[in-house]
Amino acid sequence: MLRLDSVQRHYVQGDNRLVILDKTDFSMVRGEMVALVAPSGAGKSTLLHIAGLLERPDAGEVFIGGQPFGSLSDPERTAARRNAIGFVYQFHHLLPEFSALENVMLPQMIGGQSRAVAAERARALLDYMRLGKRAEHRPAELSGGEQQRVAIARAVSNNPHVLLADEPTGNLDPETSHYVFDALTALVRQSGVAALIATHNHELAKRMDRVVTLQHGKIIPYDLANS
Ligand code: ADP
Ligand code: MG
Question: How far is the CA of 26 from the centre of ligand 2 (A)?
Answer without folding.
Answer: 18
